UniProtKB/TrEMBL annotation, chains A, B, C, D, E:
UniProt keyword Hydrolase, yes or no: no
GO CC annotations on file: plasma membrane
Domain MotA/TolQ/ExbB proton channel stretches: 102-216
Keywords noted in UniProt: Cell membrane, Flagellar rotation, Membrane, Transmembrane, Transmembrane helix, Transport
Assigned protein family: Belongs to the MotA family.
Subcellular location: Cell membrane
Segments passing through the bilayer: 33-51, 149-170, 176-200
Primary localization: membrane
Protein name, UniProt field: Chemotaxis protein PomA
Organism: Rubripirellula amarantea
Biological processes, Gene Ontology terms: bacterial-type flagellum-dependent swarming motility; chemotaxis
Pfam families documented for this protein: MotA_ExbB
Endpoints of the signal sequence: none
Gene for this chain: pomA
């Protein structure tokens, strides 16, 4: 589990709550439901205008994925590819049919299945690459939604603060209420800054990083399937795929 | 119908009106016709300087298109291409002449008509690609107008607020009027922030997304026409074009 | 004449003057010569540091060009090229010598003259392309000057306002003068925002658009000259060049 | 040692401390632990969400690397490569085996070891280039962490200031405390600006520059190893690699 | 001499001094040594962290170069190349040896010397291109230093103003001092805006423009040397190199 993101999130929220606790003002001074609705609701509304309904609905899932993303174990993946290559070398490509059910990586599974079914290497590669491109496009859209939320949240925070200031300025008969009115007006800007800098912007960065990492795993999978189909020796495949690992892992058993 | 954009728009406007309703200030405190004219009029004036008259006149239509855009049903398109391919295979290219009237997609229509008229594949492809490039250029201009409106609206909002502040500061003999004067000055900035973040910026994003999606449909159309003209088998065409669909749709009947 | 830019400019200025007229403050409250000099003079001074004297001197002309730019009539251009092609086909390339004087487009004129003088097609194309590149470089510099003016005007506006505030804060013995002092300080920021968003930034955008349009006309001219020199049939030239026109114009006589 | 970064850092900190010392306020007026925690803690928390734990943990080391980076002595490197080439020419590639232990540059070491072990030049080059790409990726991540810290620090500074203002506005019963309250609120923004502009942003720039410089050294190493393996004359290798040096160093012994 | 930059600089400074002179406040109100040190010292300190000591030390020289840059006279350069070509044609390449001492352009000098010494055209071109790349890299670093100074100066201006505000807010016992305190605080922001917008940013732009211009001269030099070495006719060289001149200069004697 990608514990760094979770720790970071808890730390950021903890620091903000801690600062409030250390101050003199009660917690209630920082809670204003309408302000929260303008910022978060407004950012989601703007995102709804920008993206299809289906993509927006999936965005909480995408956020969860940032916190729970485990990363593919590339070494295990390479070992499995090498094993498949050994079977294919010893008993022929068709012998892989019985093993397809055990493969977890969907790209390797699709590729091996197609190879067993007799598709030509060109067709197999094209299908796998089209698939990876589609995955990449979905990742980009996910990151893009977070980016837009992180851009619209402060904008709606400013809209809320401007509305609060206008209301406050409209009625200045009671000078003692000015401070409180202004405090409420500023809360919307605070909410916009918090949701953008604690959630949306860092999550967008993380999604970009995760996507770049996943692309490397996909490349290993495609190269592995192509090498198995072209009958390369398991040892050569092992050597070739291990260049994608960091130096320390390269010589691991 | 692309209901997400409409829902997003209603939600954003609803949140803003709702926040005002929940406050103490009357609605009238948020209405100022001259401020509205400076922001929206100013943004349109700046856009008029940037773009040809014809493109600006079409921009309300473009905005409507964001709300009502339905998206091309790519599966239906592929099925129609496969049907045309079957007819061409069975009865020859010329047999397609009677079917041209039924084709709705303008690119496929133009392409098939040209193929029937005896144009070479190279000429057909060049004409279709030139057409798609022209469509893309129009899309880019549409997005660009929205982008510029979203950039000039807050700028003219700031201009209006500065003018309001200067007027207010000019006459501070009546301290009780300062609050109201400042409120009016801030309304222009509020209007600029609202029209940019509720309308222009999200609409620009959406137009960009729609255009990228449409380009995929155009690619399917061109590839389909080229495949029909070169006499490929309907089954092969079907397989090839379905790689453009998301995985779930690929096996649909 | 490109009337949109002129209308946009008049509209933007009209809106600003109208808003002032509707307010209570006299026009004189918005006029401050030193502020104007700091903003416009400062922006031009910064541009003088950035660009050669000659380019800066031409910038008012460039601004005028935005307002009066007429656009090349591409259809007429294509017709003239086709006419030249017909003459060349009928009476030989040398027969074009007598017609060179009538050609208005300078690129076509240079190209035909060179062809008549016996330059090889490679040399003709290289000279014409070098010329177009030089035109494009001049356009880019023109746009770049407007961009920099639009960036430095608000910066000098802020400098002026800061100076005004410092002067005002220096002498607060007479509280009744604070408002007026602050109003004057803000005028510089207002001027910076107005000249950037009414003139420089939209003009820069327009110059970019005009340049991209002009490049298409230059491409038609070069392709036309090359086709004439290589002896293509007038009908083929006509067809080929018309793909550069929008669909509606393509079948025009 | 890259003394410029250290001098710059001391100078920047000295200027800030000096300015405070020259003012009337005590140093304690600029110290506020909770503000410091919100800014630095918040920026690190946001970075933790963006990047894997391991990369974040290494970031203080990376910062230290900026201060202590010595740069590779390229001339010495080239001389060593030429020496190896002379041995290889005189006594054969295998004679390099005894010298591998003396080579300090890890890329040259790996490359020569592989060459001695009989790997083909293609394999040697691929392994070295993959290694350099991995180094470059690590450098990019290091710079990216500094960039994000430099972006989030001012954002959390603003969050802290907004919280301080809201607390202060909540309780304005004692007007004499308003000034002090506002001062404390502003400290968080000050901290955000300082850590971003004294540490994170300049460090990110420096890391980018260091990485670009290191890439040149890596290129010299790879070209050198390839030239040795292909048996080029030591003199030719010397000439070729010296083109990577600045002109003044090129003729050095 | 590039008099535009000098005039621009004098004009910008004159406008600022003039505005102060026209106001009521004394000049001394705009002078604050500690503020100046925080802004300029801070920006240089940050640049010291980003760049090697040597590059920073050369930056005042680079700034002077902006003011005094004369530009290469390309027509004279072409004429000299043509002259060298005539000698080479008439008396052979070796006859150029006696003329090398008279050549001022260092690239032409190096190239001709190498050609006379018998280097192959490939080697000559590679050495000259490597040299031009190194020049370009130095130019980029120079521009980059100015860009960073123009970015850090306003940042340190803000840091100084925040420190001033915190000091002022700390001690509000004497209301009459608040105005003056705030004025001093704002001076740092003013200094940051002035040094960025009068010096660093325009100078960075100018350095970029100068570098692009110089690259064209270097291209003429390289092409000329290559043409001389390959024995092209002086007339052809003249024609070819003149396409790099603006149209008006092209037919000059």
């Amino acid at each position: 589990m990608d514990i760094a993101s979770l720790i970071g999130l808890i730390l950021a929220i903890g620091l903000i709550i801690g600062s409030i606790a250390m101050g003199n003002a009660p917690f209630s001074a920082f809670i204003d439901i309408p302000s929260f609705m303008v910022v978060v609701g407004g950012a989601f509304a703007a995102a709804l205008i920008c993206f299809p309904m289906g993509s927006i609905m999936k965005s909480p899932l995408i956020a969860l994925k940032v916190l729970l993303n485990k990363g593919e174990d590339r070494l295990t993946m390479i070992k499995q590819i090498v094993e498949l290559a050994e079977t294919a070398r010893r008993d022929g490509l068709l012998a892989l049919e019985s093993k397809v059910g055990d493969i977890q990586n969907p790209l390797i599974k699709t590729g091996i299945q197609m190879a067993v079914d007799g598709s030509t290497p060109e067709v197999v590669e094209e299908v796998l690459r089209t698939e990876v491109e589609a995955i990449q496009k979905r990742h980009k859209e996910g990151k893009s939604i977070m980016d837009q939320l992180g851009r619209f949240a402060p904008a709606y925070g400013m809209i809320g603060t401007l509305m609060g200031l206008i209301m406050m300025l409209q009625d200045m008969s009671d000078p003692s209420g000015i401070g409180a009115g202004m405090a409420v007006a500023l809360i919307t800007t605070l909410y916009g800054a918090i949701v953008a800098n604690v959630f949306f912007s860092p999550f967008a960065e993380k999604l970009g990083l995760n996507s770049r990492n996943e692309m490397v795993s996909h490349e290993i999978a495609i190269r592995g399937v192509m090498a198995i189909q072209s009958g390369e020796s398991p040892r050569a495949i092992d050597q070739k795929l291990r260049t994608f690992l960091p130096p320390k892992q390269r010589d691991a058993e």
